[in-house]
Design goal:
alpha/beta, Rossmann fold, 40% helix, five-stranded mixed β-sheet, 10 strands, three-stranded antiparallel β-sheet, 12% strand
Length: 412
């Protein structure tokens, strides 16, 4: 998995495909294409990359400011040999304009990418096609949403930039949960973040996407520790675990069962708060698979040492970061088409792209990023350590008042 220590935009080029709908007069390339898809993709490219170019079926690689006349030509009507020759010309043109290395984002269909992407990757450029799993209509809707919620994108960028500092404190994302121990997770109280192979941000497609945020000790007097919570999610050293003690394990197991059509084999999964030895024994196979799946995820954590209570900073940060990534309008960084959570029966999991259910439809408070940064500064030794809360006073009461007014309740 790519390191979070890398910046969102490091020598990133975005390539936007031409479209059939065009202006009737010669004009600059960035304004001649008039389809909603191109207009929204142009905005994404301008905001999310260092440079951008247009992939034209007729002209090859176009700079946005180049003046061209309307034309009627499509790669879809060309032979494989013609597409291969077109890709070779584009590859050569880009290398003449952009230094070697760096990254390439494709906002283009497979006809444009099929020969180009392998050529770029062969010379060491990373490539991504964040919309490849979406149909045309969904691409337009997503791009327009990114443009409409630009302020939220900036909050996400800041969240992930702060998270990069957290991973630096953890010596980078270089260990799976299965490799963590009480010795590596030394802090008593904190907040944690899981990452899953193949899950990348769509708004910054070379950054890993958080797939779960969690915490612990959010009830008065709780003695639960950060490591105990992570170990419960991971399962024991023998690979067995108890999904009745970890909602994370329950969700992952349910999705594994549904993806494998194993419901008849594991009819007791998720039933009851406890189970007999015979039931637990019958569930061992899927518990082992859950441990393998969660244990293969990478995890980062940050010490948040204030007193155990429902008003703790841990609860404040967890709630707001889930809301930022999911929220009332849904996620901006959608899960990949192969994400296991798409098999979940919980709409909150499927729609959010997170292995979380609570808080996915709530509003985000940007002050949480300030609180997060202050806790990071404590961990970095830039601020004095304190067990006092840094979150706004009365934050939970205000949320409860808002929920009561709207009728919103927490989900299980």
């Amino acid at each position: 998995m790519k390191e979070l220590l890398e910046k969102v935009r490091v020598n990133t080029v975005c390539l936007v495909a031409c479209t059939s709908r065009k202006s009737g007069q010669p004009t600059t390339a960035e304004f001649i294409y008039r389809s909603p898809l191109f207009l929204a993709a142009r905005s994404y490219a301008q905001q999310r990359a260092d440079q951008w170019f247009i992939l034209s079926a007729k002209h090859g690689l176009l700079s946005p400011e180049e003046v061209i006349a309307p034309y009627n030509e499509s790669l879809l009507n060309q032979s494989e040999a013609q597409r291969q020759a077109w890709a070779a010309d584009v590859h050569k043109a880009l290398n003449a304009r952009v230094p070697a290395g760096g990254r390439v984002i494709f906002l283009a269909g497979s006809a444009y990418r099929s020969y180009l992407a392998p050529a770029f990757e062969a010379e060491g450029r990373e490539t991504a096609a964040p919309m490849s799993a979406l149909g045309i209509g969904s691409q337009v809707a997503w791009l327009q949403k990114v443009e409409r919620e630009h302020a939220r994108v900036l909050h996400l960028d800041r969240f992930y930039a702060l998270l990069a500092r957290v991973t630096a404190l953890n010596n980078g994302l270089n260990r799976n949960l299965s490799q963590q121990t009480a010795a590596t997770v030394r802090h008593k109280r904190g907040i944690y973040f899981f990452f899953e192979d193949g899950e990348m941000r769509m708004t910054a497609p070379f950054q890993p996407r958080v797939v779960r945020v969690g915490t612990h000790a959010v009830s008065d007097g709780s003695k639960a520790t950060l490591w105990n919570r992570l170990r419960t999610h991971r399962g024991g050293a023998n690979g067995l675990g108890n999904h009745r003690g970890s909602i994370f394990r329950l969700h992952v197991g349910e999705s594994l069962i549904r993806s494998g059509k194993l419901e008849p084999t594991f009819p007791t999964w998720g039933k009851g708060q406890s189970a007999s030895a015979d039931v637990r024994s019958a569930e061992e196979k899927i518990e082992l698979l859950v441990s393998e799946h969660i244990g293969g995820m990478q995890v980062a954590w940050l010490e948040v040492p204030d007193t155990s209570s429902a008003d703790s900073d841990r609860g404040y940060l967890e709630r707001n970061f889930i809301a930022l990534m999911a929220g009332p309008t849904g996620p901006l960084d959608l899960p990949s088409g192969n994400w296991l959570g798409r098999w979940s029966t919980r709409e909150a999991v499927k729609s959010s792209g997170l292995w979380n259910v609570n808080h996915v439809y709530e509003a985000f408070d940007a002050t949480s990023l300030e609180v997060f940064e202050r806790h990071i500064e404590v961990a970095e030794g830039l601020r004095a350590r304190t067990e006092q809360s840094l979150a706004p006073s009365g934050w939970r009461l205000r949320i409860k008042e808002r929920e009561n007014a709207s009728g919103q309740i927490d989900l299980l």
